[in-house]
Design goal:
heterodimer, A: 325 residues, alpha+beta, Enolase-like, domain 1, 5-stranded antiparallel sheet, 14 helices, B: 197 residues, DNA polymerase, domain 1, 6 helices, 5 strands, 14% strand
C-alpha cells in the first residue's frame, strides 16, 4: 500500500472542502482498503467521513431517508424497512457476509467498484483501472461479464445487490457539493454505462459527497422477491440476480418492477417486461412471456452465453416467488 | 618463452578509474533518489493513536496504512486474530468492534480510535473459557485451528444477534467464515449448544 495522509472530518462541509483530485473519502472501507492494498486505488489523502455523515434512517413525508453512514445491516434490520420496503432488506441480506454488512455504509455500497477479475489483476490491461489501456475481459472473456449495455472498452458489471432493489424502487441519491449545493439524482441515472469513459462508474459530480438515499413509499410490500444466482449458496457475487415487485389487485397486475444485477455496468431495469406485465393477470404464462421479452435482445460474450437462459429462468422464478409469499 | 606483460600504467589507470566510477554511482544515484522521491512517493505517515482492546487502553504510534489486524498482531502481540487472505474473503481476522463482528483486515487502525475492540484473547474470563470456546472443544468445532479464532468471534456474534433458529440460518449467518478443514458441522453444533444455554 502506498503511504497516505489520514484526516478525519466532522461535518459534511468540511468533507467537501477537503476533497481534491488526489484525495478519497473513506467510510466502511470494505472495498477501498482492499483496492489500496492491491495498489488499484492510490490516494495521497484519505478523508475519514464516518463522523461527518448521518447514521439515521427515517420515514417521513411518505419516503424513506437513509443516511449515508447507515450500515448495511442497520438498513436490512430496520423495522420501518421491513414493514414498508422489505425488498431492500431481502437484497442486502443476499450480499456479502454479516461482518461486511456491519462495516459497509449505505452510500459506500453505491460506490463499490466492479469485481471483474481483470480490474483486480494489475498485470493486465483494464480501461477501468488504467484509462485507454484496453479491456482484457472483452478480449479473453469472463463468465461474470455483462450481457447488456457493454462495449469493446468495458464489459464489467456492477456488483451490488442493494442497488438492484434501490433501482427497482425508483430511489434517489442526494449529494452535496463544495458550495453546499444539493444534487438529487434519480437512481437509474446515478450509475452509468461504460461508454467512452469506462473508468467512471457513475454520474456523481466531482467533489461531491452522497449524504442520503431517498426511497419513495410503494405498494410492493406484499408481492416481492429477490433471487440471486451464484457459484455458492452464500457469500458470493451474483452471476445474475433479479428483484421483483408486483402491485396486485386481485390477480391483476397494477404495476410491476423488475431489475437485475450481474447484467450490466449499472443495475438493469427490465422496462419492456414491466410494461408488458402491467394490466395482465399474474400467471406463470405471462411471467414466461415477460422473461422472453426481457432477454430477447441480450448479446452474450464469449464465456457467458449461459447467462441468457439463466436470466430467463430467474425472472420467471422470482415473479412466481413474489406471488407465492 | 616470452612473458606477456600483465601490468601497465595504462591498465592501472583504466581499472582504477572504472572502480572509482562504480563506487561513486550508488551514492550519487541514492542522493538523486532521495532528492526526487518525495515527488513520487508520499512520505510514510506515523501518528499517535489510542485504542481500546479487550477493555485495556493502549497508546502507540502507527503508520496510517496499518490495519487493525496488523496493529493487533504486530504491535500489541495479540496473535489470536489470524491473517488468512488479508482481503476480507475468509473471516479469519474477525473481531468485535463496539460489540459487532467486523473484519480487522479491512479496518484501518486509525479509524478505531474511541471504539471498543474485543479479540479472541478477550473472551475468556481468566482461566475460565467462554461458553463458545468450550463448545468448540467439546463439539470438534475445529481441526487445524487456523480459522477458529475468527469462527468463534463470529459464532458469539451469531448467537447474540439471534440467528440460530435453524441449521440453515446458522450456516447463512456464518458464511463469512471459511474453514478449509471442513469442520462446519462441528461449528454449527457448537453454536446450537451455546444458543440453547
Amino acid at each position: 500500500m502506498r503511504p497516505f495522509n489520514f484526516e478525519k472530518v466532522k461535518t459534511v462541509a468540511e468533507a467537501t472542502s477537503k476533497k481534491s483530485v488526489n484525495s478519497q473519502f473513506i467510510a466502511g472501507g470494505t472495498n477501498l482498503v482492499d483496492l489500496m492494498k492491491k495498489n488499484i486505488s492510490q490516494p495521497d489523502v484519505l478523508i475519514d467521513i464516518t463522523s461527518a455523515m448521518s447514521k439515521e434512517i427515517r420515514f417521513e413525508k411518505r419516503q424513506l431517508n437513509i443516511g449515508a453512514m447507515v450500515s448495511n445491516t442497520k438498513v436490512a434490520t430496520d423495522q420501518q424497512v421491513l414493514d414498508k420496503f422489505p425488498l431492500l432488506s431481502k437484497a442486502i441480506l443476499a450480499g456479502a457476509s454479516p461482518q461486511i454488512r456491519n462495516m459497509a455504509s449505505s452510500a459506500g455500497n453505491l460506490l463499490q467498484r466492479t469485481r471483474c477479475p481483470y480490474f483486480y489483476d494489475v498485470t493486465t490491461p483494464c480501461n477501468k483501472r488504467k484509462p485507454e489501456s484496453g479491456c482484457s475481459a472483452a478480449e479473453h472473456g469472463t463468465r461474470m461479464s455483462a450481457v447488456a449495455g457493454y462495449n469493446d472498452k468495458c464489459v464489467a458489471v456492477h456488483p451490488s445487490d442493494f442497488c438492484v432493489a434501490l433501482s427497482a424502487l425508483d430511489a434517489k441519491v442526494i449529494a452535496v457539493n463544495a458550495e453546499d449545493k444539493e444534487v438529487k439524482i434519480p437512481f437509474q441515472d446515478f450509475h452509468k454505462l461504460p461508454g467512452n469513459t469506462p473508468w467512471l462508474d457513475n454520474n456523481l459530480p466531482e467533489n461531491t459527497v452522497i449524504t442520503n438515499i431517498e426511497v419513495p413509499e410503494n405498494n410492493f410490500t406484499k408481492n416481492y422477491a429477490y433471487l440471486k444466482v451464484r457459484d455458492r449458496a452464500s457469500y458470493a457475487f451474483a452471476l445474475v440476480s433479479v428483484a421483483a415487485g408486483l402491485d396486485l389487485s386481485g390477480n391483476k397486475i397494477k404495476e410491476a418492477r423488475l431489475a437485475s444485477g450481474g447484467v450490466a455496468h449499472k443495475p438493469w431495469r427490465w422496462y419492456d417486461a414491466e410494461k408488458f406485465l402491467k394490466g395482465k393477470e399474474a400467471t406463470e404464462d405471462n411471467f414466461i412471456k415477460a422473461a422472453k421479452l426481457a432477454t430477447r435482445d441480450l448479446k452474450p460474450l464469449k464465456e457467458n452465453a449461459f447467462k441468457i437462459p439463466m436470466l430467463e429462468g430467474a425472472i420467471v422464478e422470482v415473479l412466481n416467488q413474489s406471488i407465492h409469499r | 618463452m616470452e612473458i606477456k606483460q600483465q601490468y601497465s600504467r595504462r591498465n592501472f589507470l583504466k581499472i582504477s578509474g572504472l572502480l572509482a566510477a562504480f563506487v561513486a554511482i550508488p551514492t550519487s544515484v541514492k542522493a538523486f533518489y532521495n532528492d526526487v522521491k518525495h515527488y513520487f512517493i508520499p512520505k510514510k505517515n506515523v501518528s499517535k493513536l489510542t485504542v481500546s482492546v479487550n477493555k485495556k487502553s493502549h497508546t502507540l504510534y502507527a503508520d496510517s496504512r496499518s490495519t487493525l489486524l496488523d496493529l493487533l498482531r504486530e504491535q500489541l502481540h495479540l496473535t489470536g486474530s489470524k491473517k488468512g487472505c488479508d482481503h476480507g474473503q475468509c473471516g479469519a481476522c474477525t473481531v468485535h468492534i463496539d460489540g459487532e463482528r467486523a473484519l480487522s483486515c479491512l479496518t484501518l487502525a486509525s479509524m478505531t480510535e474511541g471504539r471498543e475492540i474485543t479479540t479472541i484473547e478477550g473472551l475468556a474470563d481468566g482461566d475460565e473459557l467462554h461458553p463458545m470456546q468450550k463448545a468448540f472443544v467439546e463439539c470438534d468445532g475445529f481441526q487445524c485451528g487456523y480459522c477458529t479464532p475468527g469462527q468463534i468471534m463470529s459464532a458469539v456474534a451469531c448467537v447474540n444477534e439471534g440467528h440460530t433458529g435453524s441449521v440453515e440460518e446458522i450456516k447463512e449467518y456464518m458464511s463469512g467464515n471459511l474453514c478449509r478443514c471442513g469442520a462446519y458441522n462441528g461449528i454449527v453444533e457448537s453454536i446450537q449448544k451455546v444458543a440453547a444455554l
